Amino acid sequence: MNGQLANRFTPYIFMAPAVLIMGIALLYPLGYMVYGSFREWNPSQNISETEFVGLKNYITLFFDAAFRESLAVTLIFAVTVVAAELFIGVGLALLLDRNIRGMSLLRTLFILPMMIAPVVVGLMWRYMYHPTVGTINRTLKSMGFEGVDWLGQHALASVIVADIWQWTPFIFILALAALQSLPRSALEAARIDGATAWQQIFYIKLPLMMPVLIVTALLRLIDAFKVLEVILVMTQGGPGLSTEILALRISRTATEFRELGVAAAMSNYLLILLLLLTLGMFVITRLQEKRAARLAKMVQEES
Amino acid sequence: MPQIRLENLVKKYGAVEVLHGIDLEMANNEFTVLVGPSGCGKSTTLRMIAGLESVSSGEIYIDDRPISHLEPKERGLAMVFQDYALYPHMDVAQNISFALRLQKRPKAEIAAKVREVAEIVGLTDFLQRKPAALSGGQRQRVAMARALAKDSGIFLFDEPLSNLDAKLRGQMRAELALMRQKLAKNMIYVTHDQIEAMTLADRIVVMHGGDIQQQGAPEELFKKPANKFVAGFLGSPPMNFMDAELQQENDRLYAKGHGFAFALPEQKAKTLGKTEGKVTVGIRPSDLNYDDTAPEGAGLNLNVRVAEYVGAQSVLMCACETSDVTVELKSETPIALGKTLRFAVRPEGIHVFDRTSEVAL
User: Does domain A64-267 have CATH number 1.10.10.10?
Assistant: First the structure.
């Protein structure tokens, strides 16, 4: 009897430390933030001294042009980088999914950018984009072109390029893994059925990779909404608000404007957005599982 | 229906040569089975014909047209794969019609064709299903239907039945034999299962170690195996092999070994081309019969160790001094385990192979 009881509780005992850490490191600050978002809160104040203001912070933000601009910048940034990364990453994977000499070295080189710390990536690109001494403009000038004010006039585009450079490898390796797990014989059957290389990609490879690609895209989208370091280092959100993504605006609201309550409310908006994406991802995986289970059941009922 | 010819076909992976110059001709409307143990090169040969493997040297001709440089789709053939190779994201109808849709045939024609081949393989009620919702046998049928829909003259099968369970395999084998009668097509079928080979083939090509060992009608290969490998590979339970020496005695030629001496039929003795030396004697389990009265030179004593009852037939594992001998006989034959009994050998059933070269004498 005693042994049975111990058996039943063993898994929970093993899980307890992780749950405890999750509670302290994640749930507590989260609750703190939600609580704080309903209050008028200056960093010099203790939270108990702050005044409850209801939904005021949320409503203010909703009508705040700067916040809306920041939200728009974030959306443009996230959607553009993920779309471009998908296109390039999947394209590269389709190109490199073959056995030729040196391919494994090439693959390793391709995923290097992902392994560099974001701050370093930001610094690197800032120097490359530098109007006078940057690599890019110097190259342009040596070829007789005019230099471009990358981080001035084209700040958002330049930031987007840097993010694409860093994160395309992520999509690349996942797409490559998906490609290599495709049933080889189905592709051979397609070749015998008369599919050209393009037709194999569009009718066989891409449809079969789709489940992986959808989840990958959502993962990247969630990440792209939270991007901070690279942009912080490259432009600090400027010029103007042109590259001020939400994460940056939150940090500025908290430190520069000293409005912790508003910053918390802003964080919650971002959190809701990410929750929706996560929920979408969850629903998609559940649907896939359900479909597989339904099909398997159909076979079982017949036999 | 096209004729296929392989000429000195060689396949190399790096420095390793896996096919050593295959010469093979497959006549019009012939069902050819390539059979052999795994790694013998049979699948590689088939995949080279299909265009899925490159040709290292030699040439493949279809109707005297060299095709080894062509893409698979330009060779005009259909193939059924071992794991069915269905497109998981398409339903049955889409799977069947994929090749036709790529050719941009008219919709009505495609629909008619899908109905027609679905009828042949019995899939009419499953056209809207995805492969994941089909059983193994049904998937096999879809693969078959997809190949049929292409209307090509050449059909390639790469171990199509090996993923099915034993009962279904027997059933599909029979259906395939039935379908084969209706279709005037050139079929090449790869299997490691000698029963499939024997039952389906017009012609069997036995391969081993990247070479063709022997080719011919199933009966011919069974009765007159060219070497010890073919003799041991075809037939179930497999042929018994015993070491022996040829000896001339009283005008007759004997194969003598430990515990036995068989007089070879005079006809065979004449054509043997050898009257002494070390040989291997091969006797099929079904060519041995329980017979108390078998005279010297036409029988041997066997100690019965194990009897496997398999219905109408029983398979006996016996020992003849140092060698193991399998006997297949009717189950009603009274046999006592552990006893030493006398068995007669059917004289025509004695095969003699050279001990070193293993070639049939």
Answer: no
